[in-house]
Amino acid sequence: MDRRRKVELFEQIRREYRFGVGTIRGVAKQFGVHRRIVRQAMASAVPPERKVPLRSQPKLEPVKEFIDEILRADQQAPRKQRHTAHRIWQRIGAERSEVTVAESTVRHYVCRRKQELGMAERETFVPQSYDWGSEAQVDWYEAFAEVMGELRKVYCFAMRSMAGGGAFHRAYYHATQQAFLEAHEFAFQFFGGVFRRLRYDNLKSAVKKILRGYQREETERLIAFRSHWGFQTEFCNPARGNEKGGVEGEVGYFRRNHLVPVPRVESLEELNKLLLAGCRADEQRRIAGKPHTVGEAMGIEREHLLPLPAEGFELAEISFPVVDSKGCVKARTNCYSTPLKPGTQTRVKLLPAYVEVWQERECVARHERSSSRYEQVLDLEHYLDVLERKPGALAGSSPLKQWRERGRWPESFDRLWQSLRERHGPQAGTRAMIELLGLGKRYGWDRLREAIKESLALGCTDAAAVRHLVTADELVRSHTEPCELSGLERYDRPLPQMQEYDLLLSLTTTGAEVAR
Questions:
Q1: Sign for the pseudo-dihedral over CA of 108, 109, 110, 114
Q2: In 3D, which of 30, 34, 116 has the Cα closest to residue 67?
Q3: From CA 369, how far away is CA 338, in angstroms rounded?
Q4: Is cis: bond before 426, omega within 30 of 0?
């Protein structure tokens, strides 16, 4: 019998005893219950709690002492190298194989014994309140995304406002200091201002060395960045994630609601657009105990934030390498292709997610930054001018191989290339293919792909046909609109009289006869 039905039964018994039969025996007989139940109902309107008898545990009994020894040894072990209930159950199966016991049984016993030994004491936390614009908390967390069909780990930056509850998330392939600082700038732009205080744990991007108490030796870069934006920093104690519980809870909520299922994207930029859309969608939710939605609170808090500086902080690492004989420049340990001639000195900007090559105030190449070491990042587009003179180098070139790996060289390109080589020979056919690739560089690669796809669908594999499809839009001439000619009669003029010219002709004839 459930608790509610028993309370109702006690009410009926008490009423019957007072206004009905009036005896314990008669009430028990009428309701079909034991006289003990009647006496309990007369003593109190609330049924007593049911006593749970202690049950014997014959399967667990042989290993109780074994488990207790492990837990007592854990009291002297480092906090992060202590046994979990699952690990204890595994050891029972390996070291006490004669005993068969369920993991849930071990788990319940371990939980009770840890409480008895004082190893599972629960700490009491004091709720905090925050003024508008006073504090935001910052953290990194890991997630996975399917980028171009490949499952990749990404590191996500999160900044959460403690007063309003709004949050900003951004993903990077590596949690570098550059990415850390750049994400701050994106977050400040998202919130529309700068928080007066930011709270961190002891992440390497910000802390160079942990000193006594709350003192930290911060990195020079963070100090300069903090000075530029005008905020203050505070750091949590080591292994005390609860001191920034706001962003910890935000990370769990955001991961469950916007990163499940695993997002499928074509680039890191597209993933960040999805994360930003998730941040905007969360502005519609209302946090328990808050009078405003997250979006409304962000609007109020925006008026209390520090204003944004006129210019951002210079995050890029600048170097001035020279283009080598392979058409590449070196940034740290990796090489990136350029369309410039060997021997040209360039200006390279190393950004958190990209590498840009500049020449005479123009960005001539932009690559996704490689997270590996001693790797070549090559773009086939940068080698088209050279390949026009050396077409035989295309088939085995590293830039073409990387384009295939990145999905930038579709199967339709190979079909057209093979047909051109069969019709014109290996050398001339490859050169014709390279000329078509030049159209992609000029008119856009999406346009070239569509033209090649359409040409193959029509059964035509001629380079001139593809060239026509790519440039067809430029061949269309706009039609002249007809204009109204009414009202132009006033400009009519009479036709000229030509008799005077006949007189000149007669004079010319007469002069010729006299001269004869």
A1: positive
A2: 116
A3: 14
A4: no
Question: Mean of the pLDDT values across residues 329-358?
Answer: 92
The full DSSP string for 454-503 is HHHHTT---HHHHHHHHHHHHHPPPPPPP---TT-GGG--PPPP-HHHHH
pLDDT at 254 over 70: yes
Question: Tell me: the pLDDT tens digits for 2-24?
Answer: 888 889 999 999 998 888 888 99
Supply the DSSP symbol for 84: P
Give the torsion through C-alpha atoms of 218, 219, 224, 228, to 10 deg.
Answer: -60
Two tokens, residue 13: 């018994």
Q: Contact 171/272 with Cβ under 8 angstroms?
A: yes
Q: Give CA–CA dist 58/286, Å, rounded.
A: 51
- Burial (CB < 10 A; 0-12, 13-18, 19+), residue 336, is buried
Determine how many CB atoms are found less than 10 A away from the CB of residue 37: 19
Rg (Cα) of the chain, in Å, rounded?
Answer: 41
Write the DSSP string, 282-337: GGG---TT-SS-HHHHHHHHHTTSBPPPSS----PEEE--B--TTSEEEETTEEEE
291, pLDDT greater than 70: yes
Higher model confidence: residue 420 or residue 53? 420
Q: Report H helices in 167-289.
A: 177-191, 220-229, 245-258, 268-281
Token pair belonging to 486:
């009414």
Q: What is the pTM of this model?
A: 0.62
Say if residue 297's pLDDT is above 90. Answer: yes
Per-residue exposure over 176-213, b if at least 16 CB sit within 10 Å of its own CB, e if not: bbbbbbbbbbbbbebbebbbbebbbbeeebbbeeeeee
Determine how many CB atoms are found less than 10 A away from the CB of residue 306. 14
Residue type, 266: E
pLDDT for 212 equals 46
Write out the two tokens for 345.
């000195």
